[in-house]
């Protein structure tokens, strides 16, 4: 009969096994990690990604060459055309938002400059007595008002052309002494971009014509007015421009009264907007 093993023998065997396992771990043999099951997020029906996926599915079905019943094929063609239209509208809206955020700062500052200049000219017009000076100030006031409208209603989807570029101001001064006038005042005699005259003519027709210009697409179409064009812009631009006080030849300003109130009309140099939500961020018009 064999003798029993001592406890020290068991302890030595277990320690040798642990050392062997430790050497295996150091050589890069690790226990396999558990892989989590990541579920792919499905596109919600009606979203742009879902519409794109559905359009690709229909196109692949047509390219597969399988026989499709005539009524099913007609339905799929109409559905594909509808999805393609939605995709084009989404791309156009993305382009619109990109251009708004790109030029909203320069448009905002130029509109403010034009408004300040028009207000200053209007106050000068109240004090003017000479007929020639009055005619000159009227022309300058009209130009400043159209500058403000230009900054508000320049087409969103087109590259904005500045009214007061620094290079044009330097060339106009011809290297002479710097004038203490504002940028807008210095640029009154500078040639305006072609779009300026288009907006000037549209301002005579009313705000609806200006909104059509602002929302027109690159292909020239402006049938679908963007929903962000609020109802506050339905006021005629002629009535906005006519609020400016024009003095008589005698030098005394014409004073009007508001409906229901006996207050004097303050000179409105440039058309003011009640809603400053020109861009998606609500920064300017």
Number of strands: 0
Structural class: mainly alpha
Main sheet makeup:
none
Q: Per the principal axes of the C-alpha atoms, what is the gross shape?
A: elongated
Integer average pLDDT: 74
What is the terminal-to-terminal distance? 105 Å
Oligomeric state of this protein = single chain
What is the N-to-C order of secondary-structure elements (H for helix, E for strand)? HHHHHHHHH
Instruction: Calculate Rg over CA atoms.
Output: 36 Å
Give the % helix: 40-55%
Strand content: under 5%
Detailed description of the structure:
This protein is 54% helix and 0% strand. The protein is an all-alpha fold and 285 residues long. It has helices at 7-26, 48-63, 70-127, 131-153, 166-173, 183-186, 194-205, 207-214, 237-241.
Tags for this entry?
single chain; 285 residues; mainly alpha; 9 helices; elongated; disordered C terminus
